[in-house]
Amino acid sequence: MIIAIDFDGVLVNDKFPEIGEPDLEIVSAIRKLGSTEHELMLWTSRVGERLAEAVWWCRDHGLKFTCV
């Protein structure tokens, strides 16, 4: 199964264009999903530098997506 996960308002509190505080409960749950057979997709309206910031944030927090 492919699971799409939004960034702003889900992984982090919505402070777009800045990155808000993480929702640690959600981040932990997504990490667990990533260790299963599911494919994870980062679903966001961020583009360019803002998208790169979100991708790096996710990597820094142990989140691995199969596609962005």
What is the N-to-C succession of helices and strands?
A: EEEHEH
Our estimate of the beta-strand percent is 25-35%
Q: From the alpha-carbon coordinates, what is the Rg to the nearest angstrom?
A: 11 Å
Q: Could you give a short account of the major beta sheet?
A: 2 strands, parallel
Number of helices: 2
Low-confidence stretches: none
Average pLDDT across residues?
Answer: 93
What does this structure look like?
With 68 residues, this protein is an alpha+beta fold. Helices cover 35% and strands 28% of the residues. It is built from two helices and four strands; from the N terminus they run βββαβα. It has helices at 24-34, 48-60; strands spanning 2-6, 12-15, 18-22, 39-43. The chain has a two-stranded parallel ribbon. It has a two-stranded antiparallel ribbon with strand order 2-3. It is globular and about 30 Å long. The two termini are 16 Å apart.
